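Dear colleague,

Thank you for sharing your sequence with our group. We've completed the structure prediction you requested, and as agreed, I am returning the results in plain text so they can be pasted directly into your records. Please verify that the sequence below matches your submission; if there's any discrepancy, let me know and we will rerun it promptly.
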Amino acid sequence: MSTIEQRLHELGLQLPEATPPLYNYVPVTIHQHIAYISGQVPRIDGHIPFPGKVGRDVTIEQASELAEYCVLKGLSCLKAQIGSLDQVEHILKVTGYVQVAPDFYEPSKVLDAASALLEKIFGEKGRHARTAIGVATLPSNAPVEIDFIIAIK
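Please find the predicted structure tokens below.
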């Protein structure tokens, strides 16, 4: 068992199966030891558990839980591409999109869950730059979508 897989196990986490994209793109592109992971929506068994806008249909807590699932999906895609998450050198950048109600101004609170999870999994290598953006719509009415830029060995 790899070090990161052991860490996931210690945290009581399991990576979901990497699934092929529904549309015309690739899940991961690697260029010069940088992995660009496509936006991950929290589709579980083909559906979004808490669809809608954060601040109206979805609570911050529910959206935060889905943000953590987006992290696990992204890591699953990366592992499928590179073989082992022990190849991660550093999480460089996380960009999160939160589908928000018109009067919701705290997408950063939702993304904090994703950032905290990456730090729990990778330690100091998991600390990263981040952008949190509130948007009007996301694919499949998902409350959150996250993409990643990760340095690999």
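Summary note from our side: DSSP finds three helices and five strands in the chain.

Kind regards,
the structure core
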